[in-house]
Amino acid sequence: MLLSGCSIEDWGKAFGHFGWPGRGITLQAHEMYDLWIASTIAALTVGIGVWGLIFWCVIRYRKRGEELPVQTRFNMPMEILYTVTPVLIVAVLFYYTAIVQTNVDKLSKNPDQVVEVVAFKWNWQFNYRDGMGEEANTVASTVGSSDVIPILVLPVGRKIRFEETSKDVIHSFWVPEMLFKRDVFPGSVRNVFEVTLDGEGRYVGRCAELCGTYHAFMNFELVTVQPPQFEQFLAAKKAGKSTQDALTAIGKEPYATTTTPFNTRRQAHTWNAPETQAAGK
Ligand SMILES: [Cu+2]
């Protein structure tokens, strides 16, 4: 009866989400979060049982004399119990993991918005597309620089499809609050995933694959807004406005608030200084 009064979210909150940033900002993240909290509680429950038995045995059966204690072997009920119980636990964990993973990887036939994520050393470009796949066209675009953090504006409550491609090396698209990241490959591999956002706000995004000297500077910001605001933003972008002007037009802070551009010091500290002469010249 006590347990029925608790939700998985309450348990998560009570224990600092067991190390995760929170419940996340997508429907897919919520499923992963519930699986994480429930699995951790299951693991701790088993752990408490095991620790309890260990300490009970240590105290109850400590050495009291020189006499050899009763030697128990081939106890069939015990053997069956400790074979069947772990198999059941693993089967249940596997069942829920398979369901959540399938849902997280699910692609719809008609996403509401397609975003092409282009990673390059060392920043991001976000292309709003008019359809799916490489053949679709970019209708509006945002690109980051050493001075301006790129901002990706997206609507809540819509199916968003991300299509990833890199211009050089492997990067990884990661918004910690989405509880999800996926590698961005160069060449013909085009990684795709979909989310439905449900948290309105501003969230920092990062590159999660060590991609070179300025890897740590590959930050961006995800700004989630209501669908009508998004339509207004996209229309402004299509009309040729800058991302900053389009954000101002929908009443949003035009520059990133969750992260700031780093001083890249590319001239003073570069390993390929302009004056460097190639060998033999
Ligand atoms: Cu990177």
Description:
The chain is 32% helix and 22% strand. The chain has helices at 8-14, 27-60, 76-105, 227-238, 243-249; strands at residues 113-120, 123-129, 138-143, 151-155, 159-166, 171-175, 180-184, 191-196, 201-207, 220-225. The protein has a five-stranded mixed sheet with strand order 3-2-1-5-8. Strands 4-10-9-6-7 form a five-stranded mixed sheet, covered by helices on one side. Strand 1 (113-120) and strand 2 form a beta hairpin. Helix 4 packs across helix 5. It is elongated. The protein starts with 7 loop residues before the first helix and ends in a 32-residue tail after the last helix. The mean pLDDT is 90. Copper (II) ion binds next to loops. Copper (II) ion is lined by residues 119, 171, 207, 209, 211, 215, 218.
Assign an overall shape. Answer: elongated
Radius of gyration: 26 Å
> In sequence order, what are the helices and strands, one letter per element?
HHHEEEEEEEEEEHH
Q: How many strand units?
A: 10
What assembly state would you assign to the polypeptide chains in this entry? single chain
Q: What value does the average pLDDT take?
A: 90
Instruction: Detail the poorly predicted runs.
Output: none
Percentage of β-strand residues? 15-25%
Secondary structure category: alpha+beta
Biggest sheet layout: 5 strands, mixed
Number of helices: 5
End-to-end gap: 81 Å
Helix percentage range: 25-40%
Hetero ligands: copper (II) ion
- The strand order across the widest sheet is 3-2-1-5-8
Summarize the structure.
The chain is α+β, with helices and mostly antiparallel strands. Helices cover 32% and strands 22% of the residues.
